[in-house]
Input
Amino acid sequence: MSPDRRTLLGGVTALTALSPFLALEVAMAAPAPPALRDVDAAAADAHTRLMTVPGLNMHGDEEVAMLLYPGFTALDLVGPHYFFASMMGARVHLVTTTGDLSPVPSDLGLAIAPTTTLADCPKDLTVLFAPGGTTGTLAAASDPGVRAFVADRASRATCVTSVCTGSLLLGAAGVLRGRRATSHWVVRDMLGHFGAIPTDARVVMDGPVVTGAGVSAGLDFAIAVVERLRGLPYAQALMLQAEYKPEPPFPGGTPASTDPAIAGPMRDMFAGFAARVAELPAP
Output
């Protein structure tokens, strides 16, 4: 493990307590106090047994770039970030579009600290990821610098990805042409404006392009990407680590499964936003 990663992990003890793979890496990197040696020995034994599971690729060297632009939806980013950052050996870059490393505010005010800028982001990526939003997404998709960045990095990335309306950024950069893709239900049908094939599904894979539907679909999406990169056993291990087994307390979440008295006005409320997608430059 590199010194930088060891330093980072050593400084987030509370996080590693909830992230067994990372905690194991820390535990095996430094001597433990005598009282904890038995615990560390058991953890090391468990790590060894995991390493023998067929198809489980514990370590990797992925380069993951996750865009941050003013007005992004935090959950679009934070859910996938949890799974990507839990991949041992992966390097996750939070890439700001603003030009400096000031915290970037989300659409609801939660600010995230970036780690790099568009100019300094690694040029060769394993995963390029765009979160969604509303007016902030339209602004980012209208920015020639952002579009050029997405088009350039996407041309070499193994996985070109988005969640929710983040697909608008991919579309405006020209990387969805001829590809099946999904988005939030509000704008999914508008993906045809960018030459994409709108697809009503939670997660859609078409070659290197992997897109997720609205907001909460980011968890399904991220697990699917982890499976592609590390295999099913590793993805299942992370699902168990996160106790990811969603059970909504009542039906809903899609226009078809929601009371029409609610779904109709909601659709009308976002109609203006959807119409503005047609004003974005077509690639």
Q: What stands out?
A: The chain has twelve helices and eleven strands. Residues 37-51 form the longest helix (15 residues). The chain has a mean pLDDT of 88. The CA atoms of residues 255 and 264 lie 8 Å apart.
